[in-house]
Amino acid sequence: MMETTFLALDLGTQTGWALSQPSGITSGSESFKPRRFEGGGMRYLRFRRWLTELKSHTNGIDALYFEEVRRHVSTDSAHAYGGFLATLTAWCEHHEIPYQGVPVGTIKRHVSGKGNASKEEVIAAVRKQGFAPVDDNEADALALLSWAMEHEGGAL
After folding, report:
1. Is the pTM of this model over 0.90?
2. In terms of residue numbers, what domain contains 18?
3. How far apart are CA 117 and CA 3, in angstroms?
4. How many CB atoms lie within 10 A of CB 8?
5. Using one digit for the tens of pLDDT, what is the confidence trace for 45-88?
6. CA 80 vs CA 47, 68, 122, 134, 135: distances in Å
7. How many domains does the chain have?
């Protein structure tokens, strides 16, 4: 049984996450959609609070991996990603957790054999590994976790 705890994140307004611990793998999808009457920075404070809560359910996170996105469909999604990335990296630095971005194509190639796999192909590949992701964000996080575990000495 693996002794290392990894957290993999697909950052965004709908953040996919996957956590491997000695007790097993858990995953999900968490919404950080801006709420009515909420200031622009509140979603990032909620994200930081969620990370801290997730960490409190572990014996510490040994490494954190996130999907490194280089191209965005819109300016708004690029700004949101930048906010989540800044919040995440500052949180990791504060908690002394090593972190690494992994390019989208690398993750897709690892899980499906194709660097340009569609969302549906990634979901299907993750399901073949025995998981039941609720959406493409959770599937992406599980695919990233699989990559991290293989490249860091474990295997899903």
Report:
1. yes
2. 6-151
3. 31
4. 28
5. 999 999 999 999 999 999 999 999 988 778 888 899 999 999 99
6. 12, 13, 23, 22, 19
7. 1
